[in-house]
Design a protein that fits this description.
The protein is mainly beta. It has helices at residues 2-12, 70-75, 125-129; strands at residues 19-20, 27-28, 31-34, 40-41, 54-59, 62-65, 85-87, 102-106, 143-146, 151-156, 172-176, 185-190, 196-203, 212-220, 225-239, 256-261, 270-273, 285-293, 304-310, 317-320, 326-328, 338-345, 356-360. The model is unreliable at 1-24 (pLDDT under 50). Bound molecules: calcium ion (3 copies).
Length: 366
Amino acid sequence: MRTQRTILHVLAAASLIVSGTGDAAAQAVTEVFTNYQGFWQSSSATLPDDHHMLIGFTYDGVTYSTGVNDQALTDNSITFTEGSFEALNILKLSTTPVGQYRIFQGAAVDGDASGEGTFTAPTDSAAMASYLTDGDQGLDFGTGLANIAGGPTRVAVSNLQSSAINDGMPDLLWTQMAQPNATNDTLVFLDESGQPVGDSLVVDWAGISSVGNWSSDFFNLDGSWVSGPDPKPIRVLAIDFHDLALTSGVIGDVTTVEIHWGGSSDPAFIALNSESFGVPCDQLTFSGLQLVSAASSPATADATISPTISNGNEPYSLISILTGDTLSSSEWSTILPGRYVMKALDNSDCTSSNSITISIPNRACN
Ligand SMILES: [Ca+2]
Ligand SMILES: [Ca+2]
Ligand SMILES: [Ca+2]
């Protein structure tokens, strides 16, 4: 381990910017795109000072959209791969003042772009956490928290997709919106017993390159003024499941992500790739199974059925609970006459809690 960390630190001078407890190597995003004044990119000299949403980012030479406003990327001649990102749903954060724990927002949000305007302090822990989940898909780049009190925050996650491991596309984005210092943050996945799955990822923000700057106000937790407008650097870390040593053998055990705030983290949000995290199985709804047309004879597999399935991870299938046979949607028109008891199955291997019985006649017997 000692040797490996030494190697990591040598490589940090080039491009590797994070060390994990394994051979993890998350990487810095090199440009971000937002909808500030319609369209903004971080290499621009303009410093955003208002609410604005992350609409895209460049990682490893590829620009991905977040799904907030793909059209704005297109309209500005940005070539991109479509993506779908949303803020990690952090529900509560401490409201206890400690150190320089503060709220930040774009310098113009308070109504005075050049100084102190009107600001109302968050009233409870849910309102505090909302600075990391506000805006379209939770991706407001112009709001966040500085120097979050050290300690863990746990958030439930569901159905991590093994196909997302080491596929080149980030599974998490972690933002850092002010000056970093030497205090590291840590991210780790946990199973239902609270035990780690894979490795921890230790983030040394000072080793990650800034992509640009923005203009921010800072407020104490009681709402009192601190400073602004302050130019602050933007850093975004792209993380793949592989960086946490998740494998197809263990990824199904993950139920929780734990962020351990080092005490000087300044995020606008932590985002999930929606396609890397599935919908919880208990939302899969199997509400109907209709006969569309009977089979033409007792031995002909040409009956057609049509299930009603929703809220799961498409594409959907059916599974016969009597035979275990799985029927993809292309096979819903190739059914032999008979009696079937079916459950719905989604792409994350979730099955519906209910089953529906259907009897398929053949036209020869009618
Ligand atoms: Ca202001
Ligand atoms: Ca935010
Ligand atoms: Ca991935």
